[in-house]
Write a structure and sequence with these properties.
eight-stranded mixed beta sheet, Carbamate kinase, globular, Rossmann fold, VC0802-like, 3 domains, alpha/beta
């Protein structure tokens, strides 16, 4: 016996419901099918309720649109002989919903009880349609067996009572009823019987509890993605599906922003060691991700990367925290009373300070609560006033194999530092399956790219190039990159992306990479933005892109003047421009020192055919403007022979 859950996008259209039917038929019986509301309907119901409460009659138009959507599915998918009885049920449900909304409009009042009742209609409607569409299916009402109780402002499942009622409700399954359809998300209060719900993602939780209670063979979550990805595909284009995860790895990824499944879903099936399969309703042939007790990641230390944007860091510090028992308890108890979730904690071993991560929207209240709790200590100077940093991002690398590998943290922070990413706070659990850190939100995308690239989660090592100057040397370099790019990927595992090209007055930039087979000069002339040296510097630094290399094919002193600031932002420089390396020795020495300190490359050539690393002159004071001697080193990218002279005008 299997439990299958289909999300809102899976039951959101006529075509997607046809896919659902195909999946159910291919799996075989017996089955429990848990369904969400049609995609977007829950949000529409909430919007209608709030619109009605604000005395705005447009809720009626929104309700009519939702009704039309459901009736279109009914008349298109359901056999004629079943339409009359199903239409009567759907009519009745919409009449109830309309009456509730009219009452909210008249009273201008939307209580939690009424809102819960209104949003429940999404699953109640969809489950009736699905149960009639799948041949041989029987609908069970989850309001009869999912029971909750109030804990503060949350509805918590009464596990013992719910399990007992599920077993009673499923007494004819699978002996008599071979396919059962259950509405997810919705529940009822164990005392009053009033409608409640399990929160966003609650349909996953519904399916998990049923699977655990009935000792299912597996739980399948059917959604609109192929499975868990190594990173957010909206940020990391070359991220890919993780074929298997342990329960612990999945929990860590979900807690740090992966939206594939609702985190509490993992707990009931974990206790029974029931595997979870994440599958794509629209690509059922895709392998997907399986979550189970043990996985073989073939020696790879990191399994995936997850991130949470829009976070704030609150830091408490002061000598009174040292050795005092109960400080942390006061902090977390006070925040829990106000339903503020803490997802990141970092504390110095000296116990002088503790930093906690919360959502931006909770930060002000969290500071207010903690300031009251520690008001006396702050007033006498025993604790410093709370420090709040907002608009941050929390990034986590996850993998069970990290506990078997040495140097992961060292490699992580070295890689970030080399790319100019400063760590504000970090934490690692004792289980060693998660290293998380906080950075400015503007660095989240860059951090994810850097980690994905550096820990061999990417197929290719990527370099993102900014090219300044497309005269003889720059033009030839572009030609070579375009002609050799496939060979470099195949033979060297190296992918070169030219993300910026600048001439003396105009430039083009594209984070995804510029097509080098196009007429670049024409493209710059027609689409380029006007630049001067300050705008060029602002654009290059502002893109904040990982593994950045600035390639200077000019002979411009202005361009050479921005090298140091590029180094300070983690951008390497490869140059055929003689000026920086052959001017005052102090300038040259400062550039080399800055590049070394920032962990970036400063590679250049003068008249030779390979990049060179200069040696300081024997007597710098006697010959302050002498050209440093040089020795050849391997070049990181193919370059053309640099002529002895280049025009300083033709960038």
């Amino acid at each position: 016996m299997k439990v299958l859950k289909f999300g809102g996008t899976s039951v959101g259209s006529i075509e997607s419901l046809k896919n659902v039917k195909k999946v159910v038929e291919s799996v075989g019986e017996p089955l429990v099918v848990v369904v969400s509301a049609l995609g977007g309907v829950t949000d529409k119901l909430l919007e209608m309720a709030r619109t009605a409460a604000s005395k705005d009659k447009t809720y009626q138009q929104a309700l009519a649109a939702v009704k039309a959507r459901h009736y279109e599915m009914l008349t298109t998918l359901i056999p004629q002989r079943q339409q009359a009885s199903l239409t009567a049920k759907i009519d009745s449900l919409f009449e109830e919903l309309s009456s509730l909304l009219d009452g909210v409009y008249l009273l201008r009042d939307l209580s939690e009880k009424t809102e819960n009742a209104i949003v429940s209609y999404g699953e109640r409607l969809s489950s009736n349609i699905v149960a009639n569409y799948i041949e041989g299916a029987v609908r069970y009402n989850s309001l009869a067996f999912f029971k909750t109780f109030k804990d503060g402002h949350r509805n918590v499942v009464d596990n013992a009572l719910t399990e007992k009622l599920i077993l009673e409700a499923f007494k004819d399954f699978p002996a008599k009823d071979r396919i059962v359809v259950v509405p997810g998300f919705i529940s009822a209060d164990r005392e009053s019987g009033e409608i409640t719900n399990l929160g966003r993602g609650g349909s996953d939780y519904t399916a998990s509890i049923i699977a655990a209670t009935l000792n299912a063979e597996c739980l399948e979550i059917w959604t609109d993605v192929d499975g868990f990805m190594t990173a957010d595909p909206r940020i990391i284009q070359n991220s890919y599906v993780i074929d298997s995860l342990s329960y612990e790895e999945a929990m860590e990824l979900c807690n740090f922003g992966a939206k594939v499944i609702y985190t509490p879903t993992l707990y009931p099936v974990y206790a029974k060691n029931i595997p979870i399969y994440i599958k794509n309703t629209f690509k059922p042939e895709a392998q997907g991700t399986v979550i189970k007790k043990e996985c073989d990641h073939k020696g790879r230390a990191i399994t995936g990367i997850s991130s949470i944007g829009g976070t704030s860091l609150i830091t408490l510090s002061g000598p009174t925290m040292v050795g005092v028992v109960g400080v942390n308890s006061l902090i977390f108890s006070a925040l829990a009373k106000h339903h503020i979730s803490v997802f990141f904690v970092s504390q110095a071993s000296s116990e002088v300070s503790i930093s906690i991560g919360v959502k931006n929207e909770d930060a002000a209240l969290a500071c207010e609560v903690l300031s009251k709790v520690f008001a006396k200590e702050i007033a006498v100077g025993a604790l410093a006033p709370l420090k709040l940093e907002s608009n941050l991002a929390t990034v986590a690398i996850v993998g069970e194999n990290m506990r078997k590998a040495t140097g992961i943290a060292g490699k992580l922070f070295t890689t970030l530092g080399r790319n100019g990413i400063s760590i504000i706070a970090c934490a690692q659990g004792a289980s060693e399956t998660n290293i998380s850190f906080v950075v400015k939100e503007e660095f989240m995308r860059k951090s994810l790219n850097v980690i994905h690239d550096s820990f061999f989660l990417s197929e290719y090592k990527e370099l993102n190039l900014f090219l300044c100057g497309i005269g003889t040397v720059g033009g030839q370099l572009l030609h070579q990159i375009a002609s050799q790019s496939e060979k470099l990927k195949k033979e060297r595992g190296l992918k070169l992306n030219v993300v910026g090209i600048a001439r003396s007055t105009k430039a083009i930039f594209d984070r995804e990479g510029i097509d080098l087979h196009a007429d670049i000069r024409k493209k710059i002339a027609e689409e380029g933005i006007a630049i001067d040296i300050q705008e060029l510097k602002r654009q290059v630094i502002g893109m904040n892109i990982f593994n950045s290399v600035f390639v200077d094919c000019t002979a411009s002193a202005e361009v050479a003047s921005i090298y140091e600031e590029l180094f300070n932002h983690g951008i390497s420089v490869v140059t055929a421009n003689k000026i920086a390396a052959s001017s005052e020795y102090e300038t040259y020495a400062r550039l080399k020192t800055t590049a070394r300190r920032k962990g970036v490359k400063f590679l250049f050539e003068t008249n030779s055919t390979s990049f060179s690393t200069p040696l300081p002159p024997t007597r710098p004071s006697a010959r302050p403007f002498a050209r440093p001697r040089s020795r050849a080193i391997p070049s990181p990218i193919p370059v053309s022979t640099c002529p002895a002279r280049m025009s300083s005008v033709n960038w």
